[in-house]
Amino acid sequence: MSTITTEELSATTLLRFATAGSVDDGKSTLVGRLLHDSKSVLADQLEAVAHASRSRGQDAPDLALLTDGLRAEREQGITIDVAYRYFATARRRFILADTPGHVQYTRNMVTGASTAELTVILVDARNGVVEQTRRHAAIAALLRVPHVVLAVNKMDLVAYAEPVFAAIAEEFTAYATELGVPEVTAIPISALAGDNVVEPSGHMDWYGGPTVLEHLETVPVSHDLASCHARLPVQVVIRPRTAEHPDYRGYAGQIAAGAFRVGEEVTVLPSGRTSRIAGIDLLGEPVDVAWTPQSVTVLLEDDLDVSRGDMIVPSTDTPSTTQDIAATVCHLTDEPLTVGQRVLLKHTTRTVKAIVKQIPSRLTLDDLSQHPNPGRLAANDIGRVLLRTAEPLALDAYADSRRTGSFLLVDPADGTTLTAGMAGEAFARAEPPAAADDEGWDF
Asked: Strand, coil or helix: what is 158?
């Protein structure tokens, strides 16, 4: 595999994270407090929030309105859609996804957390770990989110009692560990009062850990390229055919994982043809090495037939290509996913026809049990599926690569995204799927 030195890759400056929790646990208030106290809110935005708060009879600005942007959200006092916010401190830049807490919006959390490197799960200190808390922990484990923060909110309503926090933290950590969550950091907070969000609390001297923002600024974001499977999905073939570049043929795309070097032997999938990297262009300039998530143009020594949807990989680390895919999926639309349904499967830059061959099980997130052979998956359901594709795909296991192990199922009639999928045994507690039966396939 390709490796780069510490000097070649500077410290990570961007963190993608998501918030989740039950209804009224204070997610939007936490996000608003985080933005407000880190001075990431413009004056006109704050004035608009203050005006909206006064119109609702509130004396102080309701910081939750900084994220609840839809009118229906403001009127109901809930979060419906995933609200993305961008902010920065002197130490790091952030992309934040505030996800809904209602059970019927579970699919929105899947959307928000699918690219997150950290998830903040809120718990109301008065209620402790509830069903939706366990659901969100299971989804974080399913999506292989590397870091989970348990924010025990509304500590001001339980007199900042350490035993309350300790009991909740112990229960949640035990459950998350059982799911395979690699790391849990528990922080007692009051989003409304600002305790331990950006500034340390003066009411909880028994807590010596970081504030939420301090943890977000310092948590390591793993981009260990020495252990990544290097993958470059080809997005477009560049052939200027100008007097200056008469023979230029470059293969452009965003590196999905790992690193590539000039002179490295690579294989183009699914054809299996090999060549060596003759050059790498980054922002119009030649470089010797490039890594994820840079967008580059790769030039090969040989004139190969390469097109959009192909994947360039190191010859020493090629994924297997297959037309039979076993995966864990989350169904996103109201129309159910059924056995025998014809769909399009979009993997990186490649889209192929596929058929849902079997749905071996549906996961019950409340107790992590498997419901065998449900025949269909409804909106928000998570289950195992077996798919057959019309053309071979180069999928990694989702456990090895979140970028190249994930895919979407799309309605071929209107292009609607139906299902988000994770190849292989994505969920730590998932049972192995039933054996495939190839009878009846027409591909």
From this structure: helix
- For residue 322, what are the contacts with CB-CB under 8 A and spacing of at least 6? 392, 393, 395
CB 198 within 8 A of CB 212: yes
List, in sequence order, every beta strand (DSSP E) within 216-338: 232-233, 236-238, 250-254, 259-261, 265-269, 273-282, 285-287, 289-291, 295-300, 311-314, 321-331, 337-338
Measured distance CA(387)–CA(393) in Å, rounded: 12
Print burial letters for 2-32: b (CB count within 10 Å at least 16), e (below 16).
bbbeeeeeeeeeebbbbbbbbbebbbbbbbb
pTM of the model: 0.78
pLDDT digits over 50-92, tens only?
A: 666 566 666 665 566 666 553 344 444 444 456 778 888 888 8
Reported as half-sphere exposure (CB side, CA atoms, 13 A), residue 195 has a value of 22
Q: Which amino acid is at 89?
A: T
pLDDT per residue over 38-58, tens digit each?
A: 777 655 566 666 666 566 666
In sequence order, what are the residues at sequence separation of 6 or more whose Cβ sits closer than 8 angstroms to the Cβ of residue 94? Answer: 14, 15, 16, 17, 86, 87, 88, 216
Name the DSSP class of 320. Answer: P
Pull the structure tokens for residue 304.
Answer: 């190969």
Residue 383, Cβ neighbours under 10 Å: how many? 24
Helix (H, G, I), strand (E, B) or coil at 217: helix
Amino acid at 140: A
Answer whether the bond into residue 372 is a cis peptide, omega within 30°.
no
CB contact burial 236-253 (16+ within 10 A = b; e otherwise): ebeeeeeeeeeeebbbbb
Token pair belonging to 291: 């890594």
For residue 270, say if its preceding peptide bond is cis, omega within 30 degrees of 0. yes
In this prediction, the residues of the chain whose per-residue pLDDT falls under 70 are 1-12, 41-82, 101-107, 222-227, 365-368, 426-443
pLDDT of residue 65: 60
